[in-house]
Design goal:
Layout lengths: L8 E5 L1 H4 L10 H14 L3 E5 L2 H10 L11 H24 L4 E3 L2 H5 L5 H11 L3 E5 L1 E4 L4 E4 L1 H12 L3 E6 L14 E2 L8 H5 L3 H14 L3 E6 L3 H9 L6 E3 L9
Parallel strand pairs: 1-2, 1-7, 2-4, 3-4, 7-9, 8-10
Antiparallel strand pairs: 5-6, 9-10
Helix pairs in contact: 2-4, 2-10, 3-4, 7-9
The protein binds 3-methylbut-3-enyl trihydrogen diphosphate.
């Protein structure tokens, strides 16, 4: 039997991990380097997506950008994207110093491609030892500018690459229930969503809905603290970890 290369793991580095959300333009270099080292030492092929944190979100808010098409001006969009590109340059440098070979691309350049062009391009990069790197971005969808969340990019990438696993690094230990305890498993056949989540929109509720979409398409999603590199490392390798696993129960094992 010929050995197929392992399917890449899609990794989301949340904005709340790579920046201090309370302080504008505050980059957490040590945290990102530690996560980069965990990825490098796993030896796994990855595609990395990072969020905006205190670089992207305050500007997006100032210029009226949200997940819905808006009348935001091109000027505000440029400024927001410049901040994201500055953040991306820092993330890329930290990952490089951790031993990875990041290759930054803007998500919409890829997602606009049809006929599997984006998929082959990413697969070639990964096979050549690079770690494709992208970020939550601002796009124009024909009606207006809007924020394309890094979580949604993870859904697209997981599907495009047939990823077995997506690991989302957060500033908390996973999805928390109404008493602040980590919910270990979410998804079809698991406990219902905690009440506070089922009713909320944005933030963690949006993340969980994107994770459920990935799970439904066959990608197991692991939400883990990005400030605990040991747990992040276990989540990445697919072994037992402290955090939340989102999956859809499979009736028959595919072997
Ligand atoms: C946001 O990306 C990007 C911009 C604000 C332009 P995400 O939505 O993925 O960012 P985080 O992880 O919540 O910070």
């Amino acid at each position: 039997m010929s050995r197929r290369p392992p399917s890449p793991v899609v990794v989301k580095l949340g904005g709340s991990v790579i920046t201090d959300k309370k302080v504008s333009f505050s980059y957490r270099e040590e945290a990102v380097r530690a996560l980069g080292m965990a990825i490098a030492s796993s030896g796994l092929p990855v595609v990395v997506v990072h969020g905006g944190g205190s670089f992207g979100h305050p500007l997006a808010k100032r210029y009226g950008l949200s997940s819905r098409a808006s009348a935001a001006s091109a000027e505000g969009v440029s400024e927001t994207r410049e901040a994201m590109l500055r953040l991306d340059a820092m993330v890329s440098a930290s990952l490089t110093s951790a031993g990875l070979r990041p290759y930054t691309f803007s998500p919409f350049t890829l997602l606009d491609l049809e006929g599997g062009g984006g998929r082959s391009f990413l697969r070639r990069l990964i096979a050549a030892g690079a770690a494709p790197l992208t970020f939550g971005d601002v796009v124009h969808d024909g009606k207006g500018f809007r924020v394309l969340s890094g979580d949604t990019i993870c859904v697209e990438l997981s599907e495009m690459l047939g990823a077995e696993r997506c690991v989302m690094a957060l500033d908390v230990a996973g999805v928390l229930d109404d008493d602040g305890r980590v919910v270990e498993t979410l998804g079809e056949g698991a406990a219902p969503l905690p009440g506070s989540l089922a009713d909320a929109t944005g933030g963690i509720a949006f993340k969980v809905s994107e994770a459920l979409r990935m799970a439904a398409a066959g990608t197991e999603v692991r939400l883990v603290s990005g400030l605990a590199p040991g747990e992040f490392s276990k989540a990445l390798k697919g072994v037992e970890f402290h955090g939340t696993t989102v999956r859809v129960a499979r009736g028959v094992s595919s072997g």
